[in-house]
Specification:
Layout lengths: L1 H26 L5 H10 L1 H38 L3 H45 L3 E6 L2 E4 L2 H6 L14 E7 L2 E11 L5 E10 L1 H47 L4 H28 L6 E5 H18 L3 E5 L6 E5 H18 L5 E8 L3 E6 L7 H4 L17 H11 L3 E7 L3 E8 L9
Parallel strand pairs: 7-9
Antiparallel strand pairs: 1-2, 1-5, 3-4, 4-5, 6-8, 9-10, 10-12, 11-12
């Protein structure tokens, strides 16, 4: 809008200048030749402005119109004051040539400006679209060059917090870890004038690397656990049989029979642990089938409600209205839900509620949330490790089996918990593509 207004002002200037100069020619006496020479030279101003503002065509057109308007006057001057018609004609020809040259130069400059502006916009769009942050350091000032850099570097760090040497490095900010690549910034002459820094959020890569390391540890542990479980089961069977035989013989001595019942109880607990270890080390092949997850969750909650009622805990079910489907092993999904719900039930107190819900984003999410005491942040990272438990009677294998089964289904699981807000188990599984339910 501003440019249009400016061009309109220049157009009025050009047209009014042409009219005034031409009027001066026709109103000035033919014998005042020096004045006419000055007026003739003034034509270069509006014609030059027109050529620069609107290009060669407009400039040449105005120059030709000026010549057509002026030459009759020049012929009249030649007849009344012996002024040279040839001189005036050559002057108009020069005016036309100047208009053409100025117009051509202006068009080239405009084209160069358009190319530069297009390149600037293109570079801006590229920087704005990059998933990495770009920043520069010039004259001891940090300049964030794209939105990603502005997002990653909040709050903006000081120069002392940034890497001081070229190459790859990592830095910790409030939002997490960033990978930084620094190199020299050069001007068009190749002289260093500062530094370029490229920032990348590597929290996801670190999480993936940690999951890979955990999977490797779990695989090795599973092999070890499977071997130990096989070796331990036979001796445990002998211990249990011997304990039962001893219990029969001590049936008349209750104070001694109590010890055999303790042995049997502990043997049973070890046997359950061994069964979990064997399940972890030798998982069964998944029997995948299309599952309407809302229907499965409704059946699961209906089955678990009596158990929850015994503990005075209510189950709340909320289902996604889109009726999501997944392709999974029904028994494995049921076991996942059972382990998560039992953990939530054990963490709950009478009068509290456990919320189980499904929702759809880019994946299916199943939430199991309690209102219990939560989990300390210090142990949250270990909660899916085998043998890790916070209960005296726990084996520490329930959540480990859940994590492994989720991974086998191509999903992920996370636990969001604080000591004051309970725990939220967030299970993510791939959705079944449209049309595949049948």
């Amino acid at each position: 809008m501003v440019k249009v207004v400016q061009q309109r002002h220049w157009l009025w200037f050009v047209l009014s200048s042409e009219l005034i100069i031409t009027a001066l020619h026709y109103l000035t006496s033919a014998h005042l030749l020096p004045y006419h020479s000055i007026y003739r030279s003034l034509y270069y101003v509006p014609v030059g402005v027109a050529a620069v503002m609107w290009g060669r065509t407009f400039g040449l057109g105005l120059a030709l119109v000026t010549a057509l308007v002026y030459l009759p006057h020049a012929h009249w001057l030649d007849a009344h004051a012996s002024n040279s018609l040839l001189d005036n004609t050559l002057e108009m020809a020069t005016l036309i040539v100047v208009a053409g040259l100025l117009g051509s130069l202006a068009e080239r400059e405009q084209q160069a400006h358009s190319r530069a502006e297009g390149l600037r916009v293109y570079i801006h769009d590229v920087l704005a679209s990059l998933p990495v942050g770009v920043a520069t350091i010039e004259q001891q000032q940090l300049k964030l060059q794209n939105p990603t850099a502005q997002h990653l570097l909040q709050p903006t760090p000081s120069l002392a917090q940034l890497p001081q040497t070229n190459g790859y490095s990592e830095m910790q900010l409030a939002e997490g870890a960033l990978a930084v690549r620094r190199s020299d910034l050069h001007n068009v002459e190749g002289q260093p004038i500062g530094a370029v820094l490229v920032f990348e959020d590597i929290r996801e890569q670190q999480a993936i690397a940690e999951r890979i390391r955990q999977a490797e540890r779990m695989a090795a542990l599973g092999q070890l656990a499977g071997g130990l479980a096989h070796e331990a089961r036979n001796p445990l069977g002998i211990v249990r049989a011997t304990s039962q035989l001893l219990g029969h013989k001590l049936a008349q001595q209750p104070q001694l029979a109590h010890y055999t019942s303790v042995i049997n109880s502990e043997v049973d607990r070890l046997d359950r642990l061994i069964s979990s270890l064997l399940n972890y080390a030798q998982p069964q092949a998944l029997q995948r089938q299309p599952l309407a997850i809302n229907q499965l969750l409704a059946e699961f909650v209906a089955t678990c409600e009596p158990l929850a009622a015994e503990h005075g805990v209510a189950l709340q079910l909320r289902l996604d209205p889109s009726e999501p489907w997944i392709e999974a092993d029904r028994d494995a999904i049921w076991q996942m839900l059972l382990n998560l719900s039992l953990n939530a039930l054990q963490a709950s107190q009478a009068g509290q509620t456990i919320a189980i819900k499904s929702l759809v984003a880019d994946q299916l999410e199943i939430h199991v949330q309690d209102q219990g005491i939560g989990i300390d942040l210090a142990i949250r990272e270990r909660i899916f490790d085998p043998f890790f438990t916070t209960r005296d009677d726990g084996t520490g294998m329930g959540l480990a089996l859940v994590a492994r089964s989720v991974a086998e289904h191509g999903g992920t699981i996370s636990l969001e918990a604080t000591p004051t807000q309970g725990s939220l188990a967030r299970l993510r599984l791939p959705l079944l593509r449209q049309g595949a339910q049948a």
